Amino acid sequence: MNPLVQQLYEQRTLPKEQLLLLICEEQYENDLRLLADQVRQKHYGKDVYIRGLIEISNYCKNNCYYCGIRRDNKEIERYRLSREDILECCETGYHLGFRTFVLQGGEDGTHADDWLCTLISQMKKQYPDCAVTLSLGERSRESYQRLFDAGADRYLLRHETAVDCHYRYLHPSELTLKNRMECLFTLKEIGYQVGSGFMVGSPGQRPEYLAEDLLFLQELQPDMIGIGPFLHHGQTPFKDEPNGDLHMTLRLISILRLMFPYALLPSTTALGTLHPQGRELGLQAGANVVMPNLSPTRLRKLYSLYDNKISTGEEAAEGKEKLIKKVEKAGYRVVTARGDVKKEGV
Ligand code: SAM
């Protein structure tokens, strides 16, 4: 076993310069994967948790330069699910064995707290054994509190990059890293299980920024960490930028597993889009969550964050049997459970 990888395993951290080596150099990949898999098996066995992803709206008031549903993309058809549509997705998902529903969407101004609270209460009433995860961007403390009081259990909000100048390169000036980070700490204070994360290979990213991302996550101590490759979208300012690298993403998943042994780490749709075996490779690198799509089939292509997004086959909730087989082939098993984060010593 490489001594640097062993050191990360034992100490759960390393100085920035050494993290940088593990991130950048392929020679560490095998050892990282082997130890990361051991750690994940120690805490979570072979279990892979599934989350039913419901993309509730592709309207967004933000204009992030990388994202296909940004406000200035006038070429996409916009949609918004009704409460009834969303509850129908939950019903389908529940019967398929999903025990977590993730409501994700652009920052849609019509999603007022009252509307969301009514929806969340209905979901919790109808499916008391299920967790509700939200991924609806930046909101006020009061709003996060109300949604939590209505029954939301978890919140996903990637910090995107922990380096201020890079954040400014990826976003227009009305969005700030300071606010994004404050939102994350607020969500934690309120009591949500919190997820953060970043894109690998986003335009302007330098390897040392990725080391900063890891160090920021160490400060935040999130319960869930979602990372995936940046993938370009033809109707954004970054349309000609290259996609993120598969192997760097896999090394980072393994590093995250060693730094955060208890974290819930999804093997993301972006990884599955980048490479036909991306999802399985992500699991083997240390991930233990997949989030198949439960949105109405006809709308999935419209939630286009990047080009060529996969949304059928094992990516789709109704393709669960295919997913089960693929996960088994990779050496793991899909379980029907809420899949809350496990804590040290519990
Ligand atoms: N609006 C919410 C938010 O801001 O967190 C949730 C939706 S947002 C589209 C979800 C995530 O998609 C972002 O955090 C970002 O990391 C990812 N994403 C957006 N565009 C992407 C791209 N071109 N390639 C890869 N991931 C992308």
What does this structure look like?
- The structure is a single chain.
- With 346 residues, the protein is an alpha/beta fold.
- The protein is built from 13 helices and 9 strands.
- The protein has helices at residues 3-11, 16-24, 29-44, 83-96, 113-126, 141-149, 164-170, 177-190, 207-220, 246-259, 269-274, 278-284, 320-330, and strands at residues 47-50, 52-57, 100-105, 131-135, 154-156, 193-200, 224-229, 289-290, 333-335.
- The strands form 2 sheets. It has a 6-stranded parallel beta sheet with strand order 2-3-4-5-6-7.
- Strand 4, helix 6 (141-149) and strand 5 (154-156) form a beta-alpha-beta unit.
- Helix 2 crosses helix 9 and helix 5 packs parallel to helix 6.
- The longest helix has 16 residues, at 29-44.
- The radius of gyration is 19 Å and the shape is globular.
- The two termini are 29 Å apart.
- It binds S-adenosylmethionine.
- S-adenosylmethionine is lined by residues 66-67, 104, 106-107, 135-137, 157-158, 160, 199, 228, 230-231, 233, 270, 305-306.
- S-adenosylmethionine (SAM) binds next to loops.
Break the fold down into its secondary structure elements and pairings:
Elements: H1 3-11, H2 16-24, H3 29-44, E1 47-50, E2 52-57, H4 83-96, E3 100-105, H5 113-126, E4 131-135, H6 141-149, E5 154-156, H7 164-170, H8 177-190, E6 193-200, H9 207-220, E7 224-229, H10 246-259, H11 269-274, H12 278-284, E8 289-290, H13 320-330, E9 333-335
Parallel strand pairs: 1-8, 1-9, 2-3, 3-4, 4-5, 5-6, 6-7
Helix pairs in contact: 2-9, 3-10, 4-5, 5-6, 6-8
Bound molecules: S-adenosylmethionine (SAM).
